[in-house]
Amino acid sequence: PARAQLDLVFLIDATGSMGDEIARLRSTLRDIAAQVARLPSLPDTCFGLVAYRDLSDEFVVRRHDFTNDLDAFQGVLDALQAAGGGDYPETVQRLSWRGDDTTRLVMLLADAPPHLDYPGPQYDDSMAAALGKGIKVLSVGASGLDKQGEYIQRQIAQYTGGRFVFLTYRNAADPASGPGTQTVHDVGNYSVQTLDKLVVRL
Predict the structure, then answer these.
(1) Rounded-to-integer distance, Cα 148 and Cα 191, Å
(2) H-type helices in 80-180, by residue range?
(3) Which of 43, 71, 165, 193 has the smallest number of CB atoms closer than 10 Å to its CB?
(4) How far is CA 19 from CA 42, 78, 86, 127, 183, in A?
(5) Model's pTM, two decimal places?
C-alpha cells in the first residue's frame, strides 16, 4: 500500500520567554522525526514551521513552507530565535496544507493566549477553519501559561480533535529550573513523558 502522508507543522510562539522551549524542540527534532518514521504506516512526513510574535516586533508571522528535507528544516529551526514580545498575549495566523489525503497535525507551543484585541480573524475563526480542513491541533502549554491561555488552548485542541498537554518543570514557578514534574496548571493525576515521545504517541 501507498505510504501515509503526514503534514506536521510546528506553530511556535517565538517571543522572548520561549527560549528554553525552542531550544528543547531544536535538540529533539531529529528524535521526533525518527520515531514518526518508524510508525506502522511509515509516513511520508513533511515539516512546516510558523513562528509568531507581536505587532511591535521584527515580524508578526514568519512562515517556512513544508519540506521533507529534515536537514533543511533543522536549519530553519536552528535559526529561530526567541525575542520580542512582552505585550502578553500573542498572535497567530492561518496555515496552508497538502491535499485532502494527508493527515494534518499542528503542534502549537505557546506560553500566552492569542491576542483578542488585534484586527482580523480571531482564534475561534482560525479554529473553525482548521476543523474544516481536517487539521488536528496538539496544544502544548509552556512555562507561565495563564488560565485564559490554558482555556483557549484546551478549547482549540478539543474543537479540532487534538489534545491539550503541558510542560512540567523542576520548580513550577520557574521554567528555567529545568525538567521536572511540577506544573502551575490546576490538574491532578497526570503522567510525565518527554515531549518528543508525547508528540509521537499523540
Answers:
(1) 23
(2) 123-132, 147-160
(3) 71
(4) 32, 12, 14, 26, 18
(5) 0.88
- C-alpha angle 158-162-166 in degrees, rounded to nearest 5: 90
What's the CA angle centered on 181, arms 153 and 112, to 5 degrees?
Answer: 25
More confident residue, 46 or 16: 46
Asked if residues 48 and 97 have their Cβ atoms less than 8 Å apart, the reply is no
> Are 4 and 42 contacting, i.e. CB atoms less than 8 angstroms apart?
yes
What is the Cα–Cα distance from 188 to 42, expressed in whole angstroms?
35
- For residue range 54-101, list pLDDT tens digits in order: 777 777 788 888 899 999 999 999 998 878 765 545 555 556 678 888
Query: Smallest Cα–Cα separation from 30: which of 78, 66, 79, 74?
Result: 74
Answer whether 155's CB lies under 8 Å from 181's CB.
no
Which alpha helices (DSSP H) does 51-190 contain, by range? Answer: 70-79, 123-132, 147-160
Q: Where are the beta strands (DSSP E) in the chain?
A: 5-13, 44-52, 61-67, 102-110, 135-141, 163-166
What are the grid coordinates assigned to 64, written together? 517556512
Distance CA 46, CA 64 (A): 11
> What is the average per-residue pLDDT within 16-32?
88
